[in-house]
Amino acid sequence: MNPIQHFHRRSIDDRDAFWTAESAAIHWHKPFEQVLDFSKPPFAKWFVGGETNLCFNAVDRWVDSRGGERALIWVSTEVDQEIIYTYRDLYREVNTVAAMLASQGVGRGDRVLIYMPMIPEAVFTMLACARLGAVHSVVFGGFASVNLAQRIDDAQPKVIVTADAGSRAGKVTPYKPLLDKAIALSTQPPAQVIIVDRGLYAFEPVVGRDLDYRELHHTHDKAEIAPVWLESSAPSYILYTSGTTGKPKGVQRDTGGYAVALASSMKGVFNGKAGETFLCTSDIGWVVGHSYIVYGPLIGGQATILYEGTPIRPDGGILWSLVERFSVNTMFSAPTAIRVLKKQDPALLKKYDLSSLRSLYLAGEPLDEPTAEWIAAGLGKPIIDNYWQTETGWTILAAQPGVADVATKFGSPSFPVYGFDVRVIDEQTGEDLGPNQKGVVAIAPPLPPGAMSTIWGDDERFVETYFNSIPNRQVYSTFDWGLFDEDGYFFILGRTDDVINVAGHRLGTREIEESINNHPSVAECAVVGIADQLKGQVAVAFAVLKDPRVLDEPGADLKLEGAIMKIVDEQLGAVARPARVRFVTTLPKTRSGKVLRRAIVAVCEGRDPGDLTTIEDPSALEQIKDSL
Ligand code: AMP
């Protein structure tokens, strides 16, 4: 056993003592009475009876000792602006926004939906919710109205906080009309909408509903709002994620367990300490943004950089220039961003002083070896591939330089992180597999602190979805295939379900199919994820038309393809748009009527489709091939 594996073993075998020690990394208003209540498996309640507050741990705790130090650095290459907030500034802003929300009746347990671009107000609002004991639900800015309406109805927020618009690569996306449409579609509209007017998009406020952020800010400028102490298991936030069905799952996170997990990971996984600077290029709409743009670095007393912009504007050196200017110690990004940078001038990697940078963490999708090698050589720094999910809230697998220095292997996100009892399981028998055997990557419960506590409002679905998919035992399925080698290094080998990963964004193929089926000409369709050099995967759709004669006119197929793409854009957003829509008269299915997605993917990627004994009509696969 290497020292990381040894540390990990202790977290499982001597769980209570291990997490009692880790829990000292945060402030508890009231100490907990029990480390773990696992009396109703698979539900795990961590630090029972303890009271704490995420905002206090992220902000107040540092005001005395490092009030004048940088807490939040906002850089926007979209609107060419930059603001640095010290911990004291952040404290002021968060108190003001908490007072603004409280003035609209927001209190303990109420939901606030945040639909915002990467601007400081979004971070203030998240922290203000935490301060009030309210539950935030951040929805990725620019998400389509239908998506947004589903999330509004599920979370039933009292207030929505938004902005007039976001901007990406210099192109403005107005958020306000998307939100108005979502509210019109929703059955649970919020009472109030607070809008940050950035002056990017002119709009008419809805009288009686829409409030101006700056006006409210002015009214509550000097407010002080005491943090609301929450029992450790009280929900801190909901974050929706895609699965195999059309209905998104609201991943619910607790308070105390999350705070401890993040504080602990800042040391163990990221090897950092208070006073350092963290750059995470994710978005606050994703789990990585929640954990390592907002809460993790601040709970760890670090400065965090909130970057609004792309990695290649004004040029491909922008991220490295941030590292130099702000002396970034830890950087966290996604393989897709690195693949984009790979197309830029390699000299940009050498143009800046990167001496402050310890390592680059990459997560969200498989890190292919050529990309890993390219960036490792270019930076001359360790590249740490780490594997996790929205559900787990922090890292399941990673090298953990704060625990011990152990060599990494290309293609492997290394070892289980302490607290995660990771197994590779035979999906037929439910038995544990040994080294070099491919199976489902699973986690034996209890899930560690910081992982999801349930699906918002649906305990049954939580158990059904995650814990009942493997026969003969109750384990959490990640729905990823994987294996570990003889040295214990893990390798992730792709999803077991119909979820695809486009440029680090997780999409259910079912969601895309459901949206395409809305087109009046479409009878049925199949969407698959096809390997793509840049984005990892792209969606490709095969549609069967109700009446194929609509394609008789010249150019009709292109027109219909465009119309279908537009529907997906409107309902799910541009990330979900299929790269191609092809028309066939039948889909390859098994005799029991299940679409043979894996065979379609193989044909599209030019591989052998494998065993086709169950196929109903082999000519259907020929059609797929011909249509490409
Ligand atoms: P999300 O919840 O959107 O973060 O997506 C989680 C999924 O992304 C995982 O179940 C994996 O399929 C994939 N994923 C995340 N990190 C990695 C990684 N380092 N290597 C391979 N796949 C990853």
TrEMBL record:
PANTHER family: ACYL-COA SYNTHETASE (PTHR43347), ACYL-COA SYNTHETASE SHORT-CHAIN FAMILY MEMBER 3, MITOCHONDRIAL (PTHR43347:SF3). Residues 60-446 form the AMP-dependent synthetase/ligase domain. This is Propionate--CoA ligase. Gene3D superfamilies: 3.30.300.30, N-terminal domain of ligase-like. Belongs to the ATP-dependent AMP-binding enzyme family. SUPFAM superfamilies: Acetyl-CoA synthetase-like. Residues 511-594 form the AMP-binding enzyme C-terminal domain. Pfam families: ACAS_N, AMP-binding, AMP-binding_C. The keyword Ligase applies. One of its GO terms (molecular function) is propionate-CoA ligase activity. Residues 5-58 form the Acetyl-coenzyme A synthetase N-terminal domain. Keywords: ATP-binding, Ligase, Nucleotide-binding. One of its GO terms (biological process) is propionate catabolic process, 2-methylcitrate cycle. Coiled coil: none annotated.
